């Protein structure tokens, strides 16, 4: 199976969906922040390993705690994934922290600030 094949793309999407459901609803670890999302998943063509990009909307402390919580729950997540998705091999998951959502929120806030300054400047004239 090639890396960018249709089958691999479908597997990536399904693993991402199930992984998000597991993190959102089944893990009871208090370290995992409630605003945690699975940004992307990349399953290797041999189905042995998987990279999951995780984004946490919060401060650095919340990100670190969530990462530690997910690392400690890897076995539980893998067993739940095996029950939900019928694959030849259940991939071992490597979590990678991604700050794209936080970056987008900060950029949106900066754009709004600039727009409000521009509006107030027009009203004074």
Structure explained in plain terms:
It is a single chain. With 125 residues, the protein is an alpha+beta fold. It has a single domain, classed as GMP Synthetase, Chain A, domain 3 (2-Layer Sandwich). It has four helices and three strands; from the N terminus they run H-E-E-H-H-E-H. The protein has helices spanning 6-25, 60-72, 74-84, 100-124; strands at 36-43, 49-56, 92-97. It has a three-stranded mixed sheet with strand order 1-2-3. A hairpin with a 5-residue loop joins strand 1 and strand 2. Helix 1 (6-25) packs across helix 3. The longest helix has 25 residues, at 100-124. It is elongated. 17% of the residues are buried.
Structural features:
3-stranded mixed β-sheet, 4 helices, alpha+beta
Outline of this structure?
The protein has a three-stranded mixed β-sheet with strand order 1-2-3. The chain has 125 residues and is of the alpha+beta class.
């Amino acid at each position: 199976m090639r890396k960018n094949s249709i089958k691999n793309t479908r597997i990536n999407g399904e693993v991402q969906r199930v992984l998000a459901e597991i993190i959102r609803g089944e893990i009871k670890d208090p370290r995992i922040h409630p605003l945690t999302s699975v940004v992307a998943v990349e399953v290797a063509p041999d189905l042995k390993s998987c990279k999951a990009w995780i984004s946490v909307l919060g401060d650095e402390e919340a990100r670190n705690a969530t990462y530690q919580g997910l690392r400690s729950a890897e076995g539980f997540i893998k067993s739940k994934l095996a029950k939900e998705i019928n694959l030849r091999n259940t991939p071992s998951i490597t979590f990678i922290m991604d700050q794209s959502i936080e970056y987008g929120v900060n950029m949106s806030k900066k754009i709004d600030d600039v727009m409000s300054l521009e509006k107030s400047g027009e009203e004074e004239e």
